[in-house]
Structures are given as structure tokens and as C-alpha cells.
Amino acid sequence: MTTDGTGHESVDLVRPYVITNGQELPKGDEFELVTLVTAADGGARRAQLDPERRALVELCCGGYLSVAEIAGHIGLPIGVIRVLLSDLAGNGQIVTRNPVPTAQLTDIQVLQEVLDGLQTRFG
Amino acid sequence: MDSRLVSDDHTYLSEQVRIAAKILVVGHFAVGKTTFIGTLSEIPPLRTEETMTRAGAHIDDLRGVQGKTTTTVAMDFGRLTLSDTLVLYLFGTPGQQRFVQVWEDMARGALGALLLVDPQRLEESFPVMDLVESYGIPYAVGVNYFDESERRPDDELREALDLLPDTPVVACDARDEASSAGALITLVKYLQTRTS
After folding, report:
1. Is residue A2 a part of any domain in this protein?
2. Chain B residues within 8 A of A63 when measuring between CB atoms
3. Do A73 and B5 make contact, defined as CB atoms within 8 angstroms?
4. By Cβ atoms counted within 10 A, which residue in B35, B60, B120, B162 is the most buried?
5. Domain ranges in chain B?
6. For every one of its 196 residues, what pLDDT tens digit does chain B have, with 9 covering 90 and above?
């Protein structure tokens, strides 16, 4: 059930749970701090979104950003951003590029890539 | 339009990035975490807040704090694109024990941590060390020297911090890019020895 796009008036100084329509903040599993997010194609329904969700989708239109970066740019707490992202993903307005599961890519490989990258960049 | 939120093309990740890795930069208040991150980050460091509203698990902490159901804690972070497919995020993590929820979030999936210490205030690092160890996060110690004259022998630091023999200790200046990158490289090499 969704009540998106209704009942939102002035949003300047509202408490986070108002922005999320009182939804329980989801646990971190779905949207980790470094989960990469971008806007889905087609913004036809964007106009119907409330200001926070619309700002979030518009920010994500430019390319991929991590959940933490989105929170930093928008200026809302991570927990609130997670609720909004969860909503928007459910509506098909944003998509994620999940962190590669560790089973598929071992820490050894990641560490080697990190080391190579640091040495190339700063060496 | 909300393009005011971001001002340049470097805000976004390259299209090919597939892997987002995370390293924590931890340490007590004012030890230089934010400076360190700012020195290495390719984007202006961002600050965000974690809200702790799910009081259920930590209800004891909130008892007696009348009307206060949420707490926020700020964390600073930066970004380093290290290859076409890999981006590394550096998260500056507050060292207070009560921010358990933040730590769970930070620790999840983190490769390791660089513990920044101030050679003049070593004892202030103990609560942070306890936290890092309790989450099982492997770490290296970066001794943030603002002044060469502060230099202390590594042995002395090791003993004062009661480090395990294999925990690396590296001197660094959080204001200096090469020095900060060197500390990070020391950490990553150490992490490699633990996984091989």
C-alpha cells in the first residue's frame, strides 16, 4: 500500500519520520552505505513525487552514487535515505548496482585491486 | 530543478564501476580523521548523519532521557576511484561506544581500519581500539605526527598501545597526500597477509 504523493505540504522543517510517512526504517542490508544507486530510465512519474523523493531521483539521474553520498548531498540522515530509496526502488524509479557478493569476488582479489590502484595513483 | 545539489561532473562515479570497497578511518575526537580523508578523497569530503531511532535494541541507553527518541551522529567520508571498475570509500568513524548502530553499519563489509593515533594522547585511543577489536575489524595504526619533533620510537608506541606483534605501525601526516596514501598502503598490505 502506498500513499505517495499525497498529503505533503510544506516540507521545510519536518521530522524525518514525517518524510518517510512513518515507515519503519529498514535495516542496512538492502541499501548499504556503499551500495551504488542510479535513477531508472524514464522520469514520467517524477512530477508526482514529493519534494524529497523527487530531489533524490533527480540527483541520481546524473549517474551512479553510493547511498552515503546521496545522503550527504541531500542532507538527510542515512536511515531516512534508505526508506526513500526502498520506496523508489519498489516503484522502479531507481536501480542499484549491488556490491559484488563476497562469494564471487574474494577479499584477496579486492585487496590486490585496491593496492594496485593506490600505488598507481600515489606511487 | 535540483541541479544545485551537485555542481560538477566529478560528482558521479564512472559508468564501469562495479566494486565499492570500504575502509574505515577511526580514532578519537580531533585526531585528524577528517583531515586524512580530505587529503586523499577525490571529491570534497561529505558529511552525513546516521539517525538512531530504532531504540528497541538499545532501550537501556535511552531510559531516563525524557522525550528523546532519536540521536544523530555525524560521519565524514571520501571517495577514491582506483580503477575502471573499483571505487574505495573512506569512512571516518566516531569512536564513542554508544554509537553501536553506526558501527554495525560501518563495519559491515569493511576491508579493515586505519586507526589514527595522536602520539601525545595515546591513552585516548583505547576506547576506539576496543570497538574495532570487538567488531573483529583488522587494523593498522597510523601515528599522526603534526610535528617531526614529536617523533617517538615505534617500540615505545607499541608498548604503550599494547599492540599485537603483527599489527603495523606507520608514521603519517594526515595533511600530506603521499604520507597518508603510504599509511593506507601499509594497511592494505597487512590485510593481504591476513587473507592469504
Report:
1. no
2. 11-13, 15
3. yes
4. B35
5. 16-195
6. 444 455 556 899 988 898 999 999 999 988 999 999 999 999 999 998 776 544 444 444 444 444 445 566 788 999 999 999 999 999 997 766 566 777 888 888 899 999 999 999 999 999 999 999 999 999 999 999 988 777 889 999 999 999 999 999 999 999 999 999 999 999 999 999 998 6
CB atoms within 10 A of CB B14: 12
* Residue to substitute from A37, A58, A112, A114, interface B, most B β-carbons within 10 A: A114
| Chain A CA closest to residue B112 | A111
- Over residues A89-112, the pLDDT tens digits come to 988 999 998 655 555 567 889 999
A6 inside domain: no
Residue A3 lies in a domain: no
Please report residues of B whose CB lies closer than 8 A to that of A32. 105, 108-109
User: According to CATH, what is the number of the domain B16-195?
Assistant: 3.40.50.300
How many structural domains does chain A have? 1
A80, A102, A122: best mutation site toward chain B, by most B Cβ within 10 Å? Answer: A122
CA torsion angle A77 A83 A84 A88 (round to 10): 150
CA distance A57 to A84: 10
Provide the domain limits for residue A74. 16-122
Q: Identify the CATH number of the domain in which residue A62 sits.
A: 1.10.10
Residue A4 lies in a domain: no
C-alpha cell at B24: 574505515
Contact A112 B72 (CB under 8 A): no
Q: Count CB atoms within 10 A of the CB of residue B169.
A: 17
B37: which chain A residues are within 8 Å (Cβ-Cβ)?
none
Indicate the pTM of the whole model: 0.84
Give the distance from residue B47's alpha carbon to the nearest chain A alpha carbon, in angstroms.
Answer: 5
CA distance B123 to chain A (A): 30
What is the C-alpha to C-alpha distance for residues B79 and B62, in angstroms, rounded to an integer? Answer: 34
- Nearest in space to B157 (alpha carbons), one of B189, B123, B187: B123
